[in-house]
Design brief:
about 325 residues; mainly alpha; 16 helices; translocase
Length: about 325
């Protein structure tokens, strides 16, 4: 998919806003970066080919504007009520990143986006809020963070079980991964950066796979993958890696976090995270096993894929390298 000059401009300013928030030496500069990031993402969402893009853009703008207003309100309490100011700032960052219990906007916005915008929302748009949250937590410990971790784990696991729309499944999956990332933030900055990097790699590969198949519903995967064993195995391995099943790459960051949480004696929170991971793995397995075992007649979409089948081997090797190579490397070491 080729980007137009305006899209390249807005993507550049979006990246600049993220960089400004992460590298700023003051909270005012971080707020400016968040606003630049927000105003750059709205034009990227809007599309003439997608009838739901205007609704998604409006929802995203209102929620992010609410988060920004909470940040401004928290700044007014910073001199006299420091604890209240920190609490409000944390709530605003949780709202902007889509963590539970402030997750209500995230699945509905994801449903109205195309796959390239979904990748940006799941990865780049989380960098600034999570980085600011990590800076905030190093200066003060808040009881709202463990509550947000537990809530995100349960909402992400239970919310995705009933879903048949792939974008909503990835949305609830992202909420569940937010619980792991916030747990990593509580441990150290290195751990959350490692987890976030692996999460970006795997979720992007899954979204690229679905975009290549033009799949938005579970039934679309069945139609597309019915004729191609390569596509079946790619779908199967990508989803299992996103679920964190060994020996796929998605297991490595979870393994690191599990070890650190055991060392830190965070047993109750770890038990909840592992239980939620099993539930998320269940609905990934449901999609993957369905794609592997059920055959459906070839449709026009599958014929379209057949005509461009020369793309499939290179895409297969690229994704399999990203999914398996780090795991094999760690096993060798």
């Amino acid at each position: 998919m080729m980007l137009s000059s305006s899209q390249m401009l807005f993507f550049s300013t979006l990246s600049l806003g993220t960089l400004l928030s992460v590298s700023s030496s003051s909270w005012f500069g971080a707020w400016i970066g968040l606003e630049l990031n927000l105003l750059s993402f709205i034009p990227l969402i809007s599309s003439k080919n997608n009838q739901y893009s205007s609704e998604a853009a409006l929802k995203y703008f209102l929620i992010q504007a609410l988060g920004s207003s909470i940040i401004i309100m928290s700044a007014s309490f910073m001199m006299s009520f420091n604890d209240l100011s920190t609490l409000l700032f944390t709530v605003a960052l949780l709202l902007k990143s889509g963590a539970a219990p402030f997750h209500f906007w995230f699945p509905s916005v994801m449903e109205g986006l195309q796959w390239p915008q979904v990748i940006i929302l799941m990865t780049i748009q989380k960098i600034a809020p999570l980085s600011l949250l990590s800076y905030l937590l190093y200066s003060s410990a808040l009881p709202i963070i463990p509550a947000a971790i537990i809530t995100s784990a349960m909402v992400g696991a239970i919310g995705g079980i009933n879903q048949t729309l792939l974008r909503k499944i990835l949305a609830y999956s992202s909420i569940n991964h937010m619980a792991w990332m916030m747990s990593a933030i509580l441990i150290s900055e290195t751990n959350w950066l490692i987890y976030f990097s692996f999460y970006c790699l795997i979720s992007t590969s899954v979204a690229i796979l679905f975009n290549y198949q033009e799949a938005f519903h579970i039934s679309h995967i069945l139609n597309h993958s019915s004729h191609s064993s390569q596509m079946k195995m790619l779908t199967f391995s990508s989803l299992l890696s996103l679920g964190g099943l060994p020996p796929f790459t998605g297991f490595i960051p979870k393994w690191l976090i599990i070890q650190e949480m055991i060392s830190s004696h965070m047993f109750v929170m770890l038990a909840i995270l592992l239980s939620s991971a099993l539930l998320t793995l269940f609905y990934y397995l449901r999609i993957a096993m369905t794609a592997l075992t059920i055959s459906s007649p070839k449709t026009k979409w599958s014929m379209k894929l057949t005509n461009s089948s020369y793309l499939t081997p290179s895409m297969l090797y690229f994704n399999m390298f990203g999914l398996l190579a780090p795991s094999l490397f760690m096993i060798i070491l």
